[in-house]
Amino acid sequence: MIVVWRMTERCNLSCAFCAFDRTLAITRRDAELLSVERFGRLLGDYRRTTGERVLVSWLGGEPLLWEPVYEVSRWLRRTFDVDISATTNGTTLHLAQVRADLLDCFSELTVSVDGLPEFHDRIRGWRGGWQRLRAAVQALARARAGAGATLKLRANVVVMRDNLPEFADLCAALAEWGLDEITFNQLGGRDRPSFFAAHGMRPQDVRTLSLLLPALRAALAARGVHLCANAQYLERIEASANGRRIAVVDCAPGERFLFIDERGRVAPCSFTTAELGLSLEDIRTLDDLRRLPARFADARRRMPAPACGDCPSTQVFAKFAV
Hints:
With 322 residues, the protein is α/β, with parallel strands linked by helices. Helices cover 41% and strands 14% of the residues. A ten-stranded mixed sheet has the order 7-6-5-4-3-2-1-8-9-10. The longest helix has 20 residues, at 203-222.
């Protein structure tokens, strides 16, 4: 089971495409620690009872700004053998203690990198950020090797028409960071529609991306780096660029993937919390957890989520396929 948990709406960067841009006048909620601990204990019981792998992936905002993140992660890992990951902007990775904590209790770490230095620093509002991030990730990779740790290191790129021309060069540069994988998302239009209109991928951009991927994937593989994405994932990107809807009738909601937001709502994905979301307070036992797929399926029959008519969820379209 994969549980993506958005811990906070706080962020310390001003990414022009993101709903959590620090310059926006929005609420900045954090997840409640007691609620996280209670549901984390339930996930641990599920792990021990079923023997199934459980991966809890912290998301934000910037999840590493959530003060209890390492304490909770270490508890889940050591007490229940739950795997931990996070997606981070990397602004705290220069700290030796942060790197030590990550090696101690995390299974995966994804850093967000959206271009070569000039583009990345400008789009994220972080002067000198690319160079600082590179140095920090390389230091983390060296520390991993020295400790014999198993932390998987990944970079994720938000691809848009602006940075597509440098995507191959960016991937080549990232291969020098000590990463294991590179993934990418197409720029989405839900968070910042006005930004998307001028920067979103067009059909010709998707064709360009599709043509460069085979050779780029092979070149990276020769350097020991996996570039993830398969034909199904590219079809999703192509459909979005061409305005073609891909409806998903049954994604087996809640069976293998859960999304939880900072308000304590659990749903099959981040796009269906309004229609299908349930309060964590209503999920108290292992039976409650096991019944979630049936409850989501029933709720979907009663109130279909508009997002399902053109599903944008990357986990449904095999983003991480190698």
